[in-house]
Specification:
Strand content: 5-15%
Shape: globular
CATH topology: TIM Barrel
Largest sheet: 8 strands, parallel
CATH class: Alpha Beta
Order of helices and strands: EEHEHEHEHEHHEHEHEHHE
Helix content: 25-40%
Radius of gyration: 18 Å
Number of domains: 1
Number of strands: 10
Length: about 325
């Protein structure tokens, strides 16, 4: 038996057609659980080049993930906790990442969406690449590793804004990953300049959990959330203790994100395989469920699937 075959291992809360275009079905009271943020990579290739630059280079915390991670590694983790679909996100900036991730999406129906890469600083090239990808329903957005750009204002360069406008014209999402307050400062500008662009803030803008500080992150996230075209992922939350952390350390940060965005603009992401250094997939899943236990059932359905399905326009439909 093929352990990864969705025709034999359908998502716990849905059903999957046996053709090449999966359609996950859910009732109003039941949602396919979507992991909206995970990666695949082959170690030692361009896909892990980010590990060789600050602040990640030579950091011993990342030793457990300095190896390859592929779909056959992830599916058992998902199956154990009942996650039925994922959005796989680029791990390195390069056009070859699109083909690599789409290959996985074609081979595994549970990979419901791909957030790839386009050269935003070259709008004409971005338009050309997106034209080629127009026939790929699973290509749902793009990301650029803003967090490793030397210039913290890279994202608001005029040519990059033009590239983002091209992305918006194709109805695609922009995943925004930043680690500095300056990165988060730019979100309202992007949202205002390109109101048709759906912007998803990865990792809720990297709150300073490890230092137990709150500002300026809290204020900047509130400002970002004022734009209706901005969303955020509850993913990659780092308490700075490797696997020795619990939901209690995340509560004030997650509660703030819920207050400013509401569950209908938040989505769960495991950040696997980075989750390995934080105790593994199951731990991240369980601690996230614990921190969200105070939400209503319908609100949890939004965070654990509904928001991602709607924002990324995944090939998943309400029955």
């Amino acid at each position: 038996m093929n352990r990864e075959s969705p025709t034999r291992h359908a998502p716990r809360n849905g059903s999957v057609r046996k053709d090449s275009r999966p359609l996950f079905l859910y009732h109003k009271s039941m949602t396919v659980i979507v992991d909206a943020h995970q990666h695949f990579w082959i170690y030692g290739t361009y896909q892990t080049s980010w590990m060789d630059v600050p602040p990640y280079a030579d950091d011993p915390v990342f030793t457990p993930i300095r190896r390859s991670f592929q779909p056959h590694d992830l599916w058992p983790e998902m199956e154990t906790v009942g996650v039925g679909a994922t959005i796989t996100v680029e791990a390195a900036d390069g056009v070859e990442e699109n083909e690599a991730l789409l290959t996985h999406a074609h081979a595994h129906t549970w990979v419901a969406g791909v957030v790839g890469w386009v050269p935003l600083e070259r709008p004409d090239e971005t338009a050309r690449i997106l034209g080629i990808l127009r026939g790929e329903p699973k290509f749902v957005g793009a990301r650029h590793l803003v967090n490793v750009e030397p210039d913290p204002d890279w994202i608001v360069r005029e040519n990059v804004i033009e590239g983002l406008q091209v992305l918006a014209s194709q109805g695609l999402v922009f995943d925004y990953v930043g680690i500095l307050p300056r990165h988060l400062e730019h979100v309202p500008t992007l949202a205002e300049r390109i109101p048709s662009l759906r912007i998803v803030i990865d990792h809720i803008g990297k709150p300073p959990i490890a230092s137990r500080e709150f500002e300026p992150w809290g204020m900047l996230l509130r400002r970002a959330a004022q734009a209706p075209n901005v969303y955020a992922k509850l993913s990659g939350l780092d308490a700075g203790k490797a696997d020795r952390w619990s939901a209690a350390e995340l509560v004030s940060y997650v509660d703030h994100a819920i207050e400013v965005f509401g569950p209908e603009r938040l989505m769960f992401g495991s950040d696997w395989p980075v989750a390995v250094v934080r105790g593994g997939y199951a731990k991240v899943w369980q601690e996230t469920r614990t921190v969200l236990a105070g939400l209503s059932e319908e609100e949890r359905h939004q965070v654990f699937g509904g928001t991602a399905i709607r924002v990324y326009r995944l090939p998943i439909a309400i029955s």
